[in-house]
Write a structure and sequence with these properties.
The chain has 160 residues and is mainly alpha-helical. It contains five helices and four strands. The strands form two sheets. It has a two-stranded parallel sheet with strand order 1-4. A two-stranded antiparallel ribbon has the order 2-3.
Length: 160
């Protein structure tokens, strides 16, 4: 794993090189309170602030079902899901007819471990942003289009 400082440095460099300090969306950063504190310092140096932090709430059972049902093609990288986006022929890639596989990190025991790590690292982060009054919680128990609409609504409400 890369240290918090190195991760923050990569983000700061990217935002600076791309001139994105006025308008950006981060996904997966910050993951820890120290990273969040570093982001706050980066923004403070530029007289900027976070408008909203969106947390997508989803039960562990739903996470297991979504990730556990994923299959991918080892040849062309196509991704399928056994219920929401199945291949035309069960277990076979639609594009190249290669047998599909379950990624190592999509095995149930690996998913549960990822959830434990996420919960251990994320709850303090949610508390951190909750104290700043920028945290917006969105129910993630719907399809992608509906969850996207909920996220957009939460961000727009935060800016008004």
């Amino acid at each position: 794993l890369v240290s918090d400082a190195e991760t923050a440095e990569v983000v700061e460099t990217f935002l600076t090189e791309q001139s994105l300090w006025d308008k950006f969306l981060l996904d997966g950063f910050p993951r820890t309170v120290p990273q969040a504190e570093m982001l706050d310092e980066m923004l403070k140096k530029r007289a900027k602030r976070i408008d909203a932090v969106v947390a997508i709430d989803l039960s562990d059972q739903n996470v297991l079902a979504r990730l556990g049902g994923r299959k991918s093609c080892p040849k062309d990288g196509s991704v399928y899901h056994e219920t929401s986006a199945p291949p035309k022929k069960t277990g076979i890639c639609d594009r190249c007819a290669t047998p599909l596989v379950v990624r190592e990190d999509d095995q149930p025991e690996k998913i549960l471990e990822r959830l434990r790590i996420y919960q251990r690292q994320t709850q303090p982060l949610l508390d951190f942003y909750g104290r700043q009054a920028v945290l917006r919680r969105v129910a993630g128990d719907a399809g992608a289009d509906e969850v996207s609409a909920r996220i957009l609504k939460a961000v727009k409400e935060a800016k008004s």
